[in-house]
């Protein structure tokens, strides 16, 4: 049954030009969780997410959801890349950006229907951006752009959501809107993975954590992973510095 589904990563290895980036990553996450992927800079967080999605090649390993390879359910996966990886000069208006989220389900040679366009505007309203429907995407602030790309992912009606550093360079109000929507998706039974760097927000934002530094340091409920000994193993930081960020307190 759907509520029994789990996402499992087994023996994931990734290397760039012969240099090992990820080593033997293994974890299982139950469906309907909001999961933070954390670790120091250069730990391989974004690389792991891209390898899970098949966006970059892996040396070995498998990624399954409900016992089937994740590649078989691409239409059920929504991905929001880092803002720095997006061409914001591309000439497209906000409503058409969101409408792109309906394309995976359309099939070859089919164009969006009136219902698809209405759904795209509904998704825009969910992120509070309906008044910017006719604006060029490049004219928006960082937080507004991130909201639009979240609306695009909502338009996909996905089961799995992957967001790479969605809170970097955005305003506080946009961050609040985004995390509340992600929590709503979780409550609806969706599974949401977020590459994240702000440790002060971890306990308020996530159900589970995946802590890596080229290899897996810990995976599971926040209170099991967000502990001084595991955080020190990952970040190689003094205990006092970690305590100032709320680790283990």
Automatic annotation (TrEMBL):
Under InterPro entries, the record lists: AAA+_ATPase (IPR003593), ABC_transporter-like_ATP-bd (IPR003439), ABC_transporter-like_CS (IPR017871), Metal_Ion_Import_ABC (IPR050153), P-loop_NTPase (IPR027417)
* Keywords linked to the UniProt accession: ATP-binding, Nucleotide-binding, Transport
Q: Which GO terms describe its molecular function?
A: ATP binding; ATP hydrolysis activity
The ABC transporter domain covers 7-239
* Keyword Nucleotide-binding attributed: yes
Q: Which family does it belong to?
A: Belongs to the ABC transporter superfamily.
- Official protein name in the record: Metal ABC transporter ATP-binding protein
């Amino acid at each position: 049954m759907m509520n029994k589904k789990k996402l499992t990563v087994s023996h994931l290895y990734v290397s760039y030009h012969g240099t090992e980036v990820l080593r033997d990553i293994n974890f299982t996450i139950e469906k309907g969780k909001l999961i933070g992927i954390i670790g120091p800079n250069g730990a391989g967080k974004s690389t792991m997410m891209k390898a899970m999605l098949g966006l970059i090649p892996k040396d070995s390993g498998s990624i399954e959801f409900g016992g089937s390879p994740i590649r078989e359910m691409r239409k059920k996966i929504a991905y929001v890349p880092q803002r720095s990886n997006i061409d914001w000069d591309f000439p497209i208006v906000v409503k058409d950006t969101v409408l792109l989220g309906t394309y995976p389900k359309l099939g070859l040679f089919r164009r969006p229907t009136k219902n698809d366009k209405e759904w795209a505007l509904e998704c825009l309203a969910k992120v509070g951006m309906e008044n910017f429907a006719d604006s060029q995407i490049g004219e928006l602030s960082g937080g507004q752009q991130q909201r639009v790309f979240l609306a695009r992912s909502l338009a996909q009606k996905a089961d799995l959501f992957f967001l790479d550093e969605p809170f970097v360079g955005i305003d506080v109000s946009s961050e609040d809107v985004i995390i509340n929507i992600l929590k709503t998706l979780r409550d609806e039974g969706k599974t949401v993975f977020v590459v994240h760097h702000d440790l002060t927000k971890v306990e308020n934002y996530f159900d589970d954590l995946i802590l890596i530094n080229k290899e897996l340091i810990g995976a599971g409920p926040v209170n099991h992973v967000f502990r001084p000994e595991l955080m020190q193993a990952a970040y190689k930081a003094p205990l006092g510095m970690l305590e100032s960020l709320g680790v283990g307190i």
